[in-house]
Design a protein that fits this description.
Blueprint: H1 3-28, H2 43-61, E1 78-83, H3 89-100, E2 104-109, H4 121-131, E3 134-138, H5 142-151, E4 156-160, H6 166-180, E5 187-191, H7 196-208, E6 211-215, H8 224-237, E7 241-244, H9 247-250, E8 256-259, H10 271-277, H11 285-291, E9 298-301, H12 312-315, H13 322-342
Parallel strand pairs: 1-2, 1-3, 3-4, 5-6, 5-8, 6-7, 8-9
Helix pairs in contact: 2-6, 2-13, 3-13, 4-5, 6-7, 6-13, 7-8
Length: 348
């Protein structure tokens, strides 16, 4: 073997070693910032996202979202939509928001890819993030969204997991702000199941000065670890957090009454038992009046809704904000894409 050939082989080996080291580092080092829950934000950052959502709502309502002088920031970019569960509001708001920014939404349902089935979350996340500019994920266990974000080289936005639902919370705070103008000092009463929507909404309320009173059936208590963090946030903002099992006590002096589905996707086999456990928790005008809610109280529900959760009288009344709330999911997604994909987590 000639000396020149030996030198070439040594140089090639050295380059391969450097490449291997760099690749190994990139496997674990991700500078992307992700939106996994409301608790991953500061109060100021949550306020920024709510205000940004309101800004986009105004632009779209005036039909002035884009102008000739403003380029579409996601033009030429693809955002992956990883959905392990079917969806209405999340899918529509995600695809529409990405299109508003000029991007291409790539929907990947559970029948389309190997996510967590024949391929690990880590492998899937590395592959998908290498070809896209962001990931919007609607998954099952919170560990799935954590796993995706840990391996992703691009921002991951949690569009729902079994523990958190940050986009819904942003939309809900926007909805309340639109109705009441100012947030500090309001009282929100949650009547129903202790779930992912409640977890992020309670955190968002604690950050924005809204007092919270929760009533759940005793068989479905709040997540103690989540509410420990909610109370810690509330202690800084001066917000009151009350947790119990009496709907009438919860709605006393409430400005907003909120509920959610009692039988979530995947819980269909438990329906009859859960309906028995939630007896007496249906939101009605009689409940609000008997419990002493304020005359100006409003109702919210993130949908889909079933009649046993709230009466038609309330759901379709002028007290109901549910359809504004649903529409605000679009503006919440626009704000999330703006803050985490376009501005790379620099929420200012």
């Amino acid at each position: 073997m000639t000396q020149t050939l030996k030198s070439s082989i040594r140089a090639l080996s050295s380059n391969c070693a450097r490449f291997s080291t760099a690749a190994g580092a990139s496997k674990t080092a991700s500078k992307a910032r992700h939106l996994l829950s409301i608790s991953s934000l500061s109060p100021a950052e949550l306020g920024y996202l709510v205000d940004t959502a309101a800004h986009y709502r105004r632009l779209i309502k005036r039909d002035s979202f884009s102008t000739p002088s403003k380029q579409l920031p996601l033009l030429g970019h693809t955002i992956a939509l990883l959905f392990s569960k079917r969806s209405t509001r999340t899918r529509v708001s995600s695809e529409v928001a990405i299109n508003y920014f000029g991007g291409h939404p790539m929907f990947l349902g559970k029948e389309d890819i190997q996510l967590g089935v024949n391929e690990s979350l880590y492998d899937s996340s590395r592959v998908i993030s290498s070809m896209t500019s962001g990931i919007v994920a609607r998954v099952g266990p919170h560990s799935d969204i954590v796993g995706l974000s840990a391996a992703s080289s691009v921002p991951v936005i949690n569009a729902l997991c079994d523990t958190y639902h940050p986009l819904q919370a942003i939309a809900d705070i926007l909805t309340i702000k639109e109705s009441f103008k100012t947030l500090p000092g309001l009282k929100l009463a949650w009547v129903g199941d202790a779930n992912n929507v409640l977890n992020d909404l309670a955190t968002a309320c604690a950050m924005t000065g809204i007092n919270v009173s929760v009533a759940t059936p005793s068989a479905h208590p709040v997540d103690s670890s989540v509410f420990a963090n909610v109370r810690e946030t509330a202690s800084v903002s001066g917000v009151t957090i009350e947790v119990g099992h009496d709907p009438l006590a919860a709605v006393k002096n409430a400005d907003v009454i909120v509920t959610d589905t009692w039988v979530s996707m995947g819980q269909e086999s438990e329906k009859q038992r859960r309906l028995q456990q939630f007896a007496g928790f249906q939101v009605t005008s009689k409940m609000a009046s008997k419990g002493g809610a304020k005359d100006t109280w409003k109702f919210m529900h993130c949908l889909p809704r079933k009649p046993e959760e709230v009466s038609d009288e309330v759901f379709y009344s002028d007290k109901s904000l549910v359809f504004d709330e649903a529409e605000n999911r679009l503006y919440a997604m626009l704000a999330a894409l703006d803050g985490f994909v376009i501005k790379q987590g620099k929420l200012e």
